[in-house]
Every structure is written in structure tokens, then in C-alpha cells.
Specification:
Elements: E1 9-13, E2 16-19, H1 20-40, H2 50-70, H3 78-93, H4 107-129, H5 131-136, H6 146-181, H7 186-229
Antiparallel strand pairs: 1-2
Amino acid sequence: MTLTPDTIVAFRAFGVSVNATIVFTWVVMALLAAGSWAATRGLRRDRPPLVATAVEALVGFVLEQIRDVTEQDPEPYLPFVGTLFTFILASNLLAVVPGFEPPTGSLSTTAALALCVFFAVPGFGIARLGPLGYLRTYLRPTPLMLPFKVIGELSRTLALAVRLFGNVMSGTVIAAILLGVAPLFFPAVLQAFSLLVGAIHAYIFAILAIVYIASGTRVQGEREEKGASA
């Protein structure tokens, strides 16, 4: 039983070992790129392909979630949040393919995704509030909150990485145990369950990313409301 694809060496090139995490990450990215190209190739307004319709439904779902959480225009956040969601979703769903090791089962991958969220929060905040406006959010309601807010940013990034890694890894352990107990009955049930759980993990990660981004950009909305009321 392999707990993480980091321990699997896929190949060595020029004295450098490339593990399964990197290889399967490339596989997921290639599949997403190919799927995006196939879904948008030859689009026609009068008769959209089935795949394009499914992609449109997915984009609409992500836009709706961003709008509900941030209460802002979701368009600026769609590329980032949508990429996070589709990458994690594809990685988790492909875990049902024999021989595929989901890159989200690696702590290095989940840490990289969490770091993307960590840097995206001030990025979106500065873009919306300006550098000084965003820095003021760390000083409210009092400058004494600055160290606590910095610690909070770091701790939630760590929690985001460990949560996704722990969920995927625990799913792998449970699947191995059940397959050892009843190898003829559980595979079909586990595949269906893995699809559901994988989708839930991707959704939770994306929602948390949206919540963190909203927390760094919501001050501007409050300021606009005060200006309108004045």
C-alpha cells in the first residue's frame, strides 16, 4: 500500500529522480488542457456540443458559488478558483483508474495549492483595495491585532494543505483495508464512493479559498456602502 506518490520513483533522467507525484500532475494538466481544447473547438451557438454544455454548466456553478460567498462580481476570481477546483476534482476522480496515484495524495502538492491561495489572497486584496487599503485590514480594529492576523494567515494555509492531504490519504488507507477484507464485493462500491468523496474534497477546498479571498476583499464593499449611505 502506497500512502503518497512521493515515494514512487517514476523514472530518472540526467541523475534526477522524478517521482509519481510530478508525473501524474503532468498527466492531469495534459488531460485538462486537452479537454478544454476539445470542449471549445468548433463551438456553434445554434448547436453547442454536449461537452461544451457540461463545461458551461461547471463554469456557471463555480460563478454562482463565488458570487454567493463574496457578494461581489465573480468574474475576476473565476480563473483562479475554477482552476483550483477542476485540478483537484480531476486528480481525485482519476484515482479510480487502476495505476493512477492522485497528486493530491502528496503533501507537497497540497502545500503548493495552499500556497497559491496564500499568495492569491493579498493579490486580490491589493488589486481591489490598493496596497495601503489592504494593509489596513491587518490593523483593524486595532494595530495590536497585526501579529494575530499574520499567525492566522499562516495557520489556515497549513490547515488547508494538511486537510486535503489527510482526506485523500485516509481514503487510500480505508480503501486498502476494505479491499483486504472483501476484495470481491467492495471494489465497485469503493469506486462510486471515491467519486463522491473526491468531488466533495475539491468543493471544500475551493469554497475555503473563496472564503479566504472574500475576507481580504470585503472591506472595499463596506467602504462603498458607507459612501453610498453618506
